[in-house]
Amino acid sequence: MSYSDVSPAEVKQRLRQEALSRRADLSHVFRIEASLSLADHVDQLRLADGCIVAGFWPIRDEIDPRPLLDALRKKGHRLCLPVVAEPHLIFRELTRETEFVSAGFGTQAPSPDAAELRPDVLLMPLAAFDCSGNRIGYGKGHYDMAISALEQSGPLDCVGLAYCVQEMSDVPAEPHDKPMDGILTEMGFRRF
What NCBIfam families does the database record attribute to this sequence (predicted)? Predict the structure, then answer.
């Protein structure tokens, strides 16, 4: 069966499963080394001085952005993490003093006491991506809705974080899908 015989949602689900399977097959040691290497590429991001960067708390076998976030903090950027809220994600400040609460899915989020921030740069987890900047998330639409809301109040740089093995030759884009501005993998940063 060709992809032209199925809906974009079905294609995305197949690609999501394939990419997540590839990611799950990576060794534990490789995942650690790849996550650490993100910080080695921090200067390739070329972020404006003092911008606010939203990261994420990794779940399952996602690439771990915490070494990168620490490198960004050392460069003077304010950090925040997403919190699932209605009608879309909000972002709370992340500092060394931040208290965390369980946020479901095995992840942590800053407590409600943390200041809510509007990020300039959104570092996003993903299941799969292609060379045009299209991404497949986990199917809940949290980031799509957050991006749409954040773009109402100004520019937003959307950067995916992933392992190279999550790249696919072609990811279908639907009208609600916003392409990423760049991708950072263990091999470095690519701007789309």
Answer: MTHFS_bact (TIGR02727)
Q: How many other C-beta atoms can be found within 10 angstroms of the C-beta atom of residue 23?
A: 19
Cα 61 to Cα 27, 42, 155, distances in angstroms: 10, 21, 30
Structural domain of 138: 3-191
First to last CA, the chain: 30
Whole-model pTM? 0.93
Q: Which pLDDT tens digits describe the chain residue by residue (192 residues)?
A: 455 678 888 999 999 999 999 999 999 999 999 999 999 999 999 999 999 999 999 999 999 999 999 999 999 999 999 998 888 899 999 999 999 998 877 788 999 999 999 999 999 999 999 999 999 998 778 898 999 999 999 999 999 999 999 999 999 988 888 899 999 999 999 999
DSSP 149: H
Give me the number of domains the chain comprises: 1
* CATH code of the domain covering residue 64: 3.40.50.10420
Whether the CB-CB separation of 89 and 145 falls below 8 Å is answered with yes
CB 98 within 8 A of CB 69: no
